[in-house]
Fold this sequence. Notes:
By secondary structure, the chain is an alpha/beta fold. The chain has helices at residues 31-43, 65-72, 83-90, 153-165, 189-195, 197-202; strands at residues 2-4, 9-16, 21-25, 48-53, 75-78, 96-97, 103-106, 109-115, 124-128, 131-135, 138-139, 142-143, 174-177, 187-188.
Amino acid sequence: MVEGGYDANFTYLIGDPVSKELALIDCAERFEILEKQLKAAFEQGYSKLNKVFVTHGHHDHVVSLKEIKEKYNPTVYCHMAEYERLIKQNKVEIDEFIEDRQILSLGEQELKAFHTPGHQPSSMCFVWQNKLFTGDTLFVGACGRHDLPGGNANELVQSLKFLATTNELSGDLEVRSGHNYGFKPYTTLAYERKNNPHLIGAV
Length: 203
């Protein structure tokens, strides 16, 4: 986990210890900072940055995507709604479009994607191991904005209702959001379901 970038953003570096493959969830920090993290992982035996999973295409979440793509050539995964924006703002094409409930691989491990529109039409959450990466859909004690271009209040409420009530997501999952906006960097989904007014209010 790397904090920095435009607005206390989080970038997450995850890896499979068997295949030694790495992936980034968002590229929200400057390239040189992420490169240091990658080099440290390579020194620990990881071999390659294979994939980047983008929660949505707002600039603060893809600050260094172009440089990461040029240096390491990972496969970029994102919702198709971001295709034109990523080309225009980052000169990067999406390699693979993500669909709701799609199973994505990272070596011997799997991530599951959930489409959670509202903050943006493209907003995705990812489950990997015991973590739920929520981008700007859900924060610790708060939720993402819906008043930016592309945002939709009704869709955000439905996405929050899903996170609050679905049996597909365990309450034990650690909520790892796109910004460090809360009283601590992460909580659990069970905690947010009990204490986050935006989840409580969406039910």
